[in-house]
Amino acid sequence: MPRLALLAALAALLLPAAAGGNTQLLASVGPGFTISFTDAGGKPVTQLDPGTYDVAVDDQAEGHSFHLRGPGVDERTDVSFVGKVTWTVTLKDGSYTFFCDPHPSALKGTFKVGTGGAAAAPPAAPKASATKLVGTVGPGFAISLTDAAGRPVKTLEAGPYAITVRDRSKSHNFRLLGPGKATTVPFVGTVTWAVTLKKGTLAFFCDPHRASMRGSVRVT
Fold it and tell me: Is the backbone peptide bond immediately before 31 cis, with ω within 30 degrees of 0?
């Protein structure tokens, strides 16, 4: 057999073994107030063996996110994201929680890996009276303040708000002028601020790039 033909035959044998080696799990959120985490056959996951898994996430609503959290794992989709994504995660002995960031008390579930352990509870939901907003900065030169459905806000009514800030870059930060809240420039992660907005102009910007990364909202 010629050398090129031999190499092609070997590649055909090796490629299937290299791909799809992990057990697949299915995660879904939306379009209504539904969230699920199942095996490939659609059976709800309650117990898994420790190991590496491919999690195929189907996020079907702008107003929701799918957040998987537990020992060694903290993966999420953005509230504004609609589409499909696959995470490769290594699950360890313990308890895992999946939930929607804007609706952690209504859209949530848990499962155990191995012998299990203390449940990793989702973050406490903001008080019902607080309107939810989302602030995002990075990973590029972008900054925004949106409602829970991902729509940019232009005007707001004075009152209490729960603002979830997603800081995606070590080179940027998110500062909210007025309430006096800010992430640090090296910080990358998510925080939630409880603030009370007063009438006037609410400004938000990145400290290192204030000239180009900024915005404002009128509070009535």
Answer: yes
Other CB atoms within 10 A of residue 120 CB:
18
SS3 state of residue 108 = strand
pLDDT tens, 132-176?
999 999 999 999 999 988 999 999 999 899 999 999 999 999 999
Written as six digits, the tokens of 171 are 């080179």
Residue 208 C-alpha from the chain's centroid: 25
pTM value?
0.49
Q: Residue 145 corresponds to which tokens in the numbers above?
A: 């303040």
Per the listing, tokens 């907005």 go with: 197
Domain boundary pick from 113, 146, 179: 113
Within 8 A by CB and 6+ apart from 204, the residues are: 135, 143, 145, 174, 175, 176, 177, 214, 215, 216, 217
Query: 143 and 91 in one domain?
Result: no
